[in-house]
Amino acid sequence: MASTRARIALDAMGGDDAPAAIVAGAIAAQTELDNVDVLLVGDPDQIQACLNQHPNAPKLEIVPAEGTIEMHEEPLGALRRKPKASINVAMQLVKDGKADAVVSAGHSGAAMAAALLRLGRLRGIDRPAIAAVFPTNRADKSVVILDVGANVDCRPKYLEQFAVMGSVYSQYVLGVDTPRVGLLNIGEEESKGNAAAIEAHEILRQNQYINFVGNAEGRDVLSGNFDAIVCDGFVGNILLKFAEAVGNIVVQMLREELPRGLNGKVGTALLKPNLQRLKKRIDAAEHGGGLLLGVEGVCIISHGSSDAFAIANAIRSAKSAVDKNIIDRIQSLTRDKKPTAEPVIASD
Fold this sequence. Notes:
The chain has eleven helices and eleven strands. By secondary structure, it is an alpha/beta fold. An eleven-stranded mixed β-sheet has the order 3-2-1-4-11-10-5-6-9-7-8, sandwiched between helices. Strand 5 (129-135) and strand 6 form a beta hairpin. The chain is globular and about 60 Å long. 49% of the residues are buried. Residues 339-348 have low confidence and may be disordered.
């Protein structure tokens, strides 16, 4: 599918290093990507001060907002008290058709709550899920894991919906012809796991819209044998943060150990291109954040510590989801299914 022009609403006030890192990421994305217009949502004076630090940057539109949702605030209450907060304004731009996607590195619970309140759920989806892309032991293959934090507890039916959304994402964004879907569990056998896992296995097996291949154990997550793996947000969030920590430790260990001694210094110089490729494969910042699937709009939720590189890649991921028409593709498979419960909004 050809690339179309996309307007990305960027929450410039969300994140540990906002707005400086967010604005720098917006400038990088606007410079590097074709057919993208980044809208910087937040305090105009602070944003402009950051833009002034980049005199050769392309012109970016500023959309005024008042305040942000702080990390210690309860999402729903804060969103109602601060209707003009940057994340509220950014979501409203998508709701009004003035933007095609939202990217935020701010309070993740507030971003999910704002998406639900402003955009609403897709028909047939009970609970949206955050999808994160993990590397695998195959250089040309990734796996999407969901949910990684939106829903602490999940009924089997929610996992089925996650599987459909993850399969669509894997097929159209990651380019897998027939995604292999797995259920994260403690064993490969159908009888393994708790009652919810056993029930979910049977539901997934019967779903005609996915290629369900069975349970995936923890050691299978990065094996490359699965293209999408579903789990509840409690387990998924632990898995995500553990994987990020392992990746950081591997890079740090290589930096410490390879240069030791003269041979090490020479070897490190020779291996530099290989090490750069390794870092690229395991660096979470390469994708910029997780896509909130199940709401009526493209929304990327980035890590609070995201730097300019991660923000630029989050904008790239948002643009890809827009280009691939990911929302309509999911909706085409879920619109005839009746939701069974109201979503629970995560607090973190």
